[in-house]
Amino acid sequence: MTEKTQTQPKTPQPETHAFQAEVREVLRLMIHSLYSNKEIFLRELVSNASDACDKLRFSALKDDSLLGGDPELRIEIETDPEARTLTIRDNGIGMNLAEVTENIGTIARSGTRQFLEQASGEADLDGKLIGQFGVGFYSSFIVADRVTLLTRRAGAPAEEGVRWESEGAGEFTIAPEKREHQGTEVILHLKEGEDEFLQSWTLRRLIGRYSDHIGFPICLRKDAVEGEEQGEWEPANQASALWTLPKTDISDEEYQAFYKHVGHDMDDALAWAHNHVEGAQNYVSLLYLPARAPLDIMLQRDERQGLRLYVKRVFIMDAAEQLLPHYLRFVRGVVDSDDLPLNVSRELLQENDLVRKIRSAVVRRTLDLLGRLADHEQDKFLSFWDEFGPVLKEGVVEDTANREKIAALLRFSSTHDPEAGQRTSLADYIVRMQEGQEHIWFVTAENFKAAKNSPHLEIFRKKGIEVLLLSDRIDEWMMGYFTEFEGHTFRSVAKGEVGFDDTQEEGKEVESSPEQQDLLKRISGVLGEEVAEVRASQRLTDSASCLVMGEHDLALHMRHMLEQAGQQLPDSRPVLEVNLDHPMLARVASAEEGRFNDLAHILYEQAVLAEGGQLDDPAGFVQRLNRIMLDV
Ligand code: ADP
Prior knowledge:
Bound molecules: adenosine-5'-diphosphate
Radius of gyration: 32 Å
Distance between the termini: 62 Å
Shape: elongated
CATH class of the largest domain: Alpha Beta
């Protein structure tokens, strides 16, 4: 993935590689946009070092020789005022040559390209995007004009150490180098003017602010006593994993600092739930809701999704998706169990009864947290909804046991106040239902505009019946599984007959005259196979025509999407409903044969277009339209 500009495979000379173009771009953006927040580099490097210690502790469970006789896992931070360097060192898992090449200098995460497409060059926005993206190691270049990384994989011989170096511009060098200690050392050659990071009190302040919760000691040298070359090492953090502390001992700032470490996020979390569970089994869960969705949340390929699993304070694995159902993949945090075996594998997690119980508790806690936000912190809840609403909707389908709970969290756009966005809950809808109204009515469409302007809404608008406007991609699928809420069945305004039995009282003829019957038959004759039937509409007041699907058929836009994706679908043709009161129909009725054909087609075609659908024969449509406009 890196482009080699010069290769000398047999000699231990450093190889020079060019950064992937994308990495270069990210680096450039980052250095500019994060400068005002430059101290975060330390948090990022300490976070990496802590992960490396976690990984080694886990590997050493099976083979303690990996510890290399140095079992006190720790992080050291050291400065050299003369050389103007700041070093962050860990005795964690380390990396071999292949791993350095793979991890440092490439950005494997799927979001990179989208990130770059969204990045605008506007510092503020870039800063936010970078925040979602997680910058990690590269943030060193905010304060350093050269970074040297020395590392050796735990258990590998001294000769297999690696030196990686870059000035952060376009290239890096990489070479094997003998190394006495395993683990990783990152040496920052500070830029002019960044001397504050050489001062011990600055470093202590930053560790206190960002890294206090890290479960390994972060050591700085004590100020040297007279006559000594260098001071002793002493920890600058509490070094007790945050989730193990009682809730009352943890400040919001500490929760947020820890979130940035486990969530790989630069922004604050939106909310969290922290529970110590004691009883049949003992475990701690600390669950966070991010404020913003990662760029790739809908693609479902974020390899970091899921929770971190610890067993008795020992990190076991990242992204333990067995602890979270797919529709809650945005939740970040930690589960630490006292009862699972330390050698638990992914396979074992899947079948384990304890895990199943933890998982259902995690789901309940997450939904309760969301419920609390919805009830007491509306603004937060709605900002959650705007980010993750479509993901949560998957839960309606996936998690039948919690469907009611999830349903209560859903928010929809609605004809009650279409411009308000997705703000109507089902409970709001039910409160506003009319006397005797049985169903919760909704329309699904390709996009919000098409939903809002759907001709199917006309009769509902006239009668003042509220309709939910659904236009997320997942909606049609979700509604297929959603039959009722609190005793009210869901009905699509675009499917089946609307069945208002009071339409006649409103002066609208449902029974059509023989001439009208004849007209419907003629239109149907022209359209042939395109439609299942042509009938007089009860739904329309302003539009001339609309398409109606059978109650159990897919909406047209959905059908079209699936067909494009190559799916074979059972044949189902729509019904064309026409508004016999519309002047267009009088025009059709009186047209001579050629014109009649054109107009009949157009009635059908405008119904397709109004749905946001696509015409099978757009050129034919244009020709018909032109013939009418030119009156030929
Ligand atoms: P992130 O930490 O967000 O994954 P980074 O760019 O900071 O992104 O690091 C990329 C990868 O490099 C890490 O996932 C890890 O595999 C490896 N890495 C970084 N720092 C260290 C370290 N101190 N020890 C071992 N591996 C590391």
